[in-house]
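Convert to structure. Protein one:
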Amino acid sequence: MMTCLDIGGSGIKGAVAGGVADIEMLGRLRTPLDDFEAFVGAIEEMLVLSPAPAGSAVSIAITGVVDPADEVIKCANIPCIDGRRLAPELRRRLGRPVAVANDADCFALAEAVAGAGKGHRIVFGTILGTGVGGGLVIDGRMIVGAGGFAGEWGHGPIAATEVGAPPVAIPRFPCGCGQVGCLDTVGAARGMERLHRHLHGLTLDSVEIVAAWGRGDAAASRTIDCYVELVAAPLALVVNVVGAGIVPVGGGLGKSAALIGRLDAEVRKRILRRTDGPLVVQAQLDIEPGLVGAAILGGAS
């Protein structure tokens, strides 16, 4: 039995795991952003709520990237942990084993082992939400690249500058990572909203755009056409490079079955492998996938 945490910029979600199919939620606490002592204190508070034995392992899915070489985390959303060797510090402070991994990687691991990717050798878990992210799992093992970077298909100056029928020019928007023209700037939820404003001069949130598309709204349909084209081509390239047999999609935009179905059809048109079966699919896990992934990371089976 272990305690699992999913830590984001707004909240810490906790659970106790006896196994992948035996996860019980503990609750949610606010994430302290600027005070490391308060951050450790919040984790300790969650451990008090956990029925896991004293000294048992803690496994954490977290926003940010952990360098496997030195365990230093890069985390813009939680400044008090940025640049720290977080896992070693927590091991020392908590007096118990601690594992820490990127939340998108944990999502991919959860879907590969217990969700839509079950039975597939190579799974590319994709996040289409506040940002565009992902994680790669091969033979049930999370792939962590140099510097901790793997699956980060949302970043790099690759966004198309002309899409749609008739074609429309798409600006190269600046990205929070410091580059210009990243897929994240048009493929994330905020990116869809930015695209809608660019095309129509209208401000709607992504949920409203997808809903309007479902009702047959012409402006929203134009936005979705352009959005899918922008996202499908880079995702098809990722599939060709890693050989993914399935691509589960999480995040807010992943909740739209119609949008993911449309994206699946467009990606399958662009990949080398011919398949009539679904490739890009909705994530399946009902329990928080970050917590399930953390449990698997910590050794739960």
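Protein two, convert as well:
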Amino acid sequence: MTITLDPGHGQFKNPGVLAGYYEGTRVFMLAYELKKELEKYEDVTVRVTREKLEDDPSLTTRGKSAGKNGSTLFISLHTNAASNPTAHGVSVFCSVKRPGSEELGCLLGEAVVKTMKKHTDITYLRGVMTRTQSGDGGVIEDYYGVIRNSVKYDCVKYSYIIEHGFHTNETECAYMYGDGSLSEIARAEADVIGGYFGLKKKKDPDPGYVEYTVKPGDTLIGIARKYGTTYKILAEYNGIKDPDLIHTGQIIKIPCPAEINVGDVVRLREGVYTYFPGGKKFSSWVKDYDYVVSKTADNSGGPVYRGGARCVLLGAKVDRKSGEHGSPINSWASLEYIEKVYYENKQER
């Protein structure tokens, strides 16, 4: 199954009521979060009409690309705008040429509303509707160019515009601009699409590894201690026969992300300024503490991703001198951005 995602507008198009919010930028990021979630299913190919953030193809090009690449489903992603700052809610537009597609449109709209309302308390489904105009010879056709041009191709059975709340509403704009909001919506929409088409999830990929470049004076034991593992594990994982023989510039693969568990104490790596890729910068004081891992999965037991990276939830702050626990920070952090640490009262593995 091929799916085309169309992040509306261009990079700096349609500013929101919050400084720094642009519809064209946020929906671009949403499209790639949704692409990542959809590609977790077997036999799914996802195309995006904007390959680069600064791209802004014509409405005709966007719509026709879905037909040219053989897509079954086309979704144009947007946030809405109104002169009235209190206007709010989610709208879904579908094609007058595709009767019966309202069902999936309604499911998608309801999923977005359910996700947003947990945070905004105001979001509702404004409607799943068509908007039409009179074409050549008085023929009724879709008003929106992206929908109109996508359904010129028989392969495109479902074509939608989804307005994810209003960027002119402070509450909904704040949610769409918040950390983790786009990945949360993407998961909700992907779940609907996967369920509707009976798609099967791929087997969970290996959580992977991080790479460390050996510096002068490094030892395998020292590297292992830094990453919360043992030199024997690193030697076996990297096929190193003699642990005493590593050289400057050598790449050591470290499988530590899979070994971080609830209750482990971790700290953010040097040179890291966000909790996960693409996230906002954290306050400088965050680096002054270590943290107890409070979650490694969501409530259903599945892995949690932010900015395309698998994350764990940082809980209680830990004073580095005393080891005493303080108030929780409750922020998801990428496994690639944290390292396990040990205090004197803890045994090293």
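Residues 344-349 have pLDDT under 50 and may be disordered. The first strand starts at residue 2 and ends at 7.
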